[in-house]
Amino acid sequence: MRIPFTKKKVVEEESRKIKANDPSLDTTQYAGNEITTSKYNIITFLPKNLFEQFRRLANAYFLFLLCLQLIPQISSLAPITTILPLVFVLALTAIKDASDDIARHRSDREVNNRETKTVVGKEFVTKKWKDVKVGDMIQLTNNEFVTADVVIISSSDENGLCFIETAELDGETNLKVRQALEETCKLGEDLNELSSFDAEIEYEAPNNNLGRFEGNLTWKGKTYPLKNDNVLLRGTRLRNTQWAFGIVCYAGSDTKLMKNSGKATFKRTQIDRLLNRLILGIFCFLLVMCTIMTICSGLWESFVGYDFRSYLPWETFLSQDRRVGAVQKCLLVFLSYIIILNTVVPISLYVSVEFIRLLQSKFIDWDVNMYYAPNNVPAQARTTTLNEELGQIEYIFSDKTGTLTQNIMTFNKCSVRGKLYGYVTDEAGNESQEADKSKQLEFEEKEEDFEWYDQKLIDAIKNGDEDVNNFFTLLALCHTVMPEEKDGKIIYQAQSPDENALVTAARTFGFVFDNRNQSSITVRLQDKEETYDLLNILDFNNDRKRMSIIIKKEGKIVLYCKGADSKIKERLDASEKEIMAETDEHLNKFASDGLRTLLLAWKDLDEGEYNKWAESLDKANTSMENRDEKVSEVYEEIEKNLKLLGATAIEDKLQEGVPQCIENLARAGIKIWVLTGDKVETAYNIGLSCRLLTNDMDINIIDAEDEKGVAAKLDEIRNEMINKIEQLFGVKIEDRKKRLDWKDWGIDVMKFDQHRKNSTNNTNGNKDQPTVLNGNGSTATATTTEMGSQNSEGFDGFGLLITGAALVHVLTDKLKMKFLELGTMCKAVVCCRVTPLQKAEVVALVMDNEKKITLAIGDGANDVSMIQKAHIGVGISGQEGRQAVLASDFSFGQFCYLERLLLVHGRWSYLRISKFLRYFFYKNFAFTLCHFWFGFFSGFSAQTLYDPFFVATYNVFFSALPVLALGVFDQDVTAAQSIKKPHLYTPGQNHEFFNKKIFAESVIHGVLTSCIIFFIPYLSISNSTRPGGMTQADLQSFGFIVATIMVVVVNLENALEMWYWTGLYHFVLWGTIAVHFLFHFALYSTFIFKIFKTNYEYVGVAQAVLTTGNFWFTLVITCAILLLPVFCREFFRMRFMPNKTDRARLNQKYRMEEKAAFVAHIKQKIHQPRKVARSGYAFSQQEGWGPLITSGRMISKAPSRARPSNIINANTPSTNDYGSSQKTNVLDPIDDNSSKNEKEVLDPSTAKKTVTITEPPTASTSASKETDPLLLSSKAEQ
User: Which of 381, 398, 746, 966 makes an SS bond possible with 361, Cβ 3.0 to 4.6 Å?
Assistant: First the structure.
């Protein structure tokens, strides 16, 4: 029996072998299906949490001090003064950690207690997920999450197909298809057959490879291969399939989902780690001071104190020998001084830090500007210990689907035979930038997100425009979409969101795809039902980047083709050059708007030509050698001399504000890496539309599939980078083997244009002389004349895209540093087809080698590993569950809120905690060192200078509130200015506000302050007397004077540090100083003496000191000596050496830089030409669907039915039968190996021309009755 709360011993496996319906199977050697994502259990919480907390050296330091205070012979302070704050800090942190872990336990319990049906004997038995074991046969129903990793046995589809949603695994919301073996799918749902199923399954050991499964199923003496298509993984969800049966092969922690999930770790900020090192230094400094006091005490006791034992007796347990007793005495003094001088790092520091962080977290929670009203999702700081690190982020790792995008594709614009449709125009026919929602056209059937404003296209359809009708007929026919009838509504099951958008758009405009089988397609073209014979589907793959369909109707054969513009253009007939030139202009316009483009083409085929080609295709399909290559060659033969029909423009809807957010974060010096499960083409286009990739970036692609090819590509890109840098910036890189770094050449990546070499003649007339970069990155010989043609091209840094196949190799030890070097030289990196574990590996690569602060953001379970790995994890509460949110440190509803989280809350938090720390160390060194100086005048006896009440309350009442106000409320510029001026974020990245140098300056400042505060009052009162003739040089008066000056000086110093003065701060600052006087006046009054009847030696001191002019003169002169130099230094710095913050504050007041920047921006736009990057995107589908359809294995479930006319006049209420409940699903093919050959991402065009939109034609009263393109007259072909 296993002991509760202990981990099960891990058994190393090479392979597994199980037998279905075998009750004798020993499953104890395999992991159970119960999962645990929490960090603690009821037994391990206390020791494990305390261990983690005492890893913070400050806590260990205070524990050591507490042990010393428990020894009465050496302690002059009660142990309770350390016990209470230490317990408070430990308890507060423990409660927070327990709360977070309880949430994880609840999530685990909810998952583990889900129920599923298992086949036991000849009946169904309901089990909880945690009770499911390897070898169990389970039944899954539609919309149910898959319990564990299972081998499919049968499904409700007669061919054994079942559809799954893999959002939790790879972030993709499109559906994918899996299938049972043909031999087992006949078992169906017959319990007799299923319970007698006794196949033996042998398969690989548990691993984290989501795209691979290797095994064999042996049944009835025959062995059948199993692959990834035959397995349903935990975390996926059964969709559009009534039921499925399967055998559990991996359970619990062995499932591929859990193998790709990282472990929850204890995160500490960089400032925490720095504080640990600083505390070690302070402790060493403390030991040095105590050692000095110990040596001096030993000498003093030996030569002086021994002779005055009658007045200053030694402890009775000390030796009476002069030397031995002096040594024993000084050793006790050493420990006493450790206690007295421990206030250099008081425990109130950590209490204050935790309090400040808590309030900063609440400010995030309360920020209404980060509240997402549509989903009722507020921002949430799920941890209180990482706020300031939000102001130091240098790398952001982001998911794409659901994080940057909504994963919603909409048909946005189109070009039909040189005519542009979709742009909104005003009365004068000019393009309007803002669409008038009131002029949105209404349709009978449309998607909720579909919007159309251009009446010209509607009029063209009604007038029977042959080209437009042909255009939409192609969209209704040329695809691999499967329709399904459900509750009286058609649901399109498309293998990609783009396919779905195009077919849905065709339906919206009245060209409805109704039904299909392996040999025909049924559509309704303007309410007229047409059935076409389906002859061939020329399937899509990553090399072809297009798909074609060959259909026949009434003896006429037509080929329709759609694909990437780079592929279609080279297959057009020579007569299409003129129309292609016009379409090119439209493609450029679409690309500049960030839309995904696709070209459509067609051609007529005569029957003899087709029959000859069909014979060649049959031979290629039956070839035993190089079958795929031969089939592709045959496809090429028929896809020639095409006629251009037009172009489509699809918008991949981004989340609101994403482009502006990414652009601003990039201006803040943050590098953004997108880690997505999508293909290169998809990620590239999203990168353009969200401004992660820009037209002026030099973008490189790593798409090799073997290690040798990847290594060669890395070297090639590196050399290209070097050549580009030398060409543009005039630097000479002598050592090409040295790691590339912009800082080595003094180039600011945010200001490339300032460092560009001047291509025109230099002032000395030597045209060939290279420009030399000075140390600050400025040019020594450059002039401000216009750039010549050589450097006229814009340059916005480097971008890098890498495919999934290549990423496998670059993450190996041999190549990862080369990849990291190139990645850190780029402004943006996009990694495609990335598994969850690879996401964490990429994050770890940067974290471990760059030592930069990282942030990971995502919205699905596939992002959990990188969220947990990064310094900061952010979860977006989206449509893919709450796994990412539960694993995150911060969460909100939209990606765009990341801008405010970092540039406002993060920057302010870092600024505030930095100012708090440097001021806190200053004031405590000033306070503590006075004890040190006093030791030289008190026989090194560890006598305290201050009143014990003051020692206990200094960091609580007399200096706490102003410094807390500094750490909680201070701000250099407003939130709006913080967002408007993202360059203000860079000081946090460079650790400019708090580092070892600033800490040393604070310590020196504190030491000098303690000298002034101690010695000026000492000299002032050493020979002074009160009006009554009594001396003023008593310990109590001197201690009170030093304490009072200390309170006034440190609080006024705090005022000089504060930028954001409010009524609350005035109250806190002046109130603290006033409270000091009132408190001591009351404490030292005779009234207290009368109440407590104790002989308190400080009675009357305050009244006596405050009534002397000597005290007030000393106070004024000390404040002047300490504060005037600080004031003058700051004035000189701000006047003659202002930093970024100073300039921003000045600009906030006078708006001078804003005006100058606007003028410079306008000039730059005038002189800098813009190039337009053409989307080379075809459509994000995968190979394999054509054969599924033509073989009849995938059968349409939607019977054809008549529907009314689809288009409604503008400005009339919609009578959409489908409404918001209408859904369209997208599918992926059986073959998931789509990471191969992801090449030719873009075919850039450098031309950009003005497109003139003509006036809309007059509407016709009647639509054309005949719109079938197969029956068009020969006139349309001319």
Answer: 381
Based on its alpha-carbon atoms, the radius of gyration of the chain, rounded to whole angstroms, reads 38
Which structure tokens are listed for 539? 């399937």
Q: Return the CATH class of domain 132-261.
A: mainly beta
**pTM to 2 decimals?**
0.75
Residue-wise pLDDT for 169-178, tens only, equals 665 666 788 8
Please check the confidence at residue 211 and state whether its pLDDT lies above 70. yes
Q: Confidence class of residue 621 from pLDDT cuts 50, 70 and 90?
A: confident
Phi, psi of 649 (to 5 degrees): -130, 115
Identify the pLDDT of residue 455. Answer: 85
The pLDDT > 90 percentage for the chain reads 29
At 1025 the three-state DSSP class reads strand
Helix (H, G, I), strand (E, B) or coil at 671: strand
Three-class secondary structure of residue 959 per DSSP: coil
Q: At what angle do helices 1152-1167 and 1140-1150 cross, to 10 degrees?
A: 100
Average pLDDT on 537-552 reads: 85
Please identify which of the residues 399, 498, 970, 972 carries the catalytic annotation: 399
Mean pLDDT, residues 1096-1118: 87
Cα Dmax for the chain: 131
Looking at residue 776, its pLDDT comes to 37
Specify whether the CB–CB gap between 396 and 857 falls below 8 A. yes
Q: Please give the annotated binding residues for ATP, written as ranges.
A: 399-401, 499, 540, 562, 596, 676-678, 833, 839, 862-863
Element (H, E) at 147: none
- Does the pLDDT of residue 576 top 50, yes or no? yes
Question: Residue ranges for the binding site?
Answer: 399-401, 499, 540, 562, 596, 676-678, 833, 839, 859, 862-863
H/E stretch holding 1013 reads: helix 996-1021
Res 1168 pLDDT > 80: no
Nearest to 850 by CA among 1265, 270, 214: 270
- Would residue 1231 show up in a list of annotated catalytic residues for this protein? no
Q: Which amino acid is at 1017?
A: P
* pLDDT band (50, 70, 90) for residue 551: very high
For 997-1015, write each residue's pLDDT tens digit: 999 999 999 999 999 999 9
Domain 409-426+440-618+626-653 has CATH 3.40.50.300: no
Q: What are phi and psi of 1113, to 5 degrees?
A: -65, -40
Instruction: Give the number of other Cβ atoms within 10 Å of residue 971's Cβ.
Output: 15
Out of 463-477, 539-553, 622-636, 675-689, least confident range: 675-689
DSSP lists the bridge partners of residue 801 as 701, 830
Distance CA 392, CA 853 (A): 6
Structure tokens that stand for 665 in this block: 């974060």
Extract the tokens encoding 682.
Answer: 């998809």
- Residue list for the binding site for Mg(2+): 399, 401, 859, 863
For 855-894, b where at least 16 C-beta lie within 10 A, e where not — what string? bbbbbbbbbbbbbbbbbbbbbbbbebbbbbbbbbbbbbbb
CA distance 515 to 490: 10
Q: What pLDDT band is residue 1207 in, cutting at 50, 70 and 90?
A: very low
Measured CA to CA in angstroms, residue 1188 lies from 158, 174, 241, 539, 556 at distances of: 14, 18, 17, 10, 25
Whole-angstrom distance, CA of residue 819 vs CA of residue 715: 10
The DSSP element (H or E) to which 570 belongs, if any, is: none
365-401+655-733+795-901: CATH topology is Rossmann fold (3.40.50)
Q: Which helix (H) or strand (E) holds 1047?
A: helix 1035-1057
Give domain limits for the chain.
Answer: 132-261, 276-345, 365-401+655-733+795-901, 409-426+440-618+626-653, 912-1150
Q: In this structure, are residues 158 and 284 in contact, taking their beta carbons and an 8 Å threshold?
A: no
Q: What angle do CA 530, 533, 536 make, to 5 degrees?
A: 135
How far is residue 671's CA from residue 665's CA, in Å, rounded to a whole number?
Answer: 8
1177 phi, psi to nearest 5 deg: -75, 135
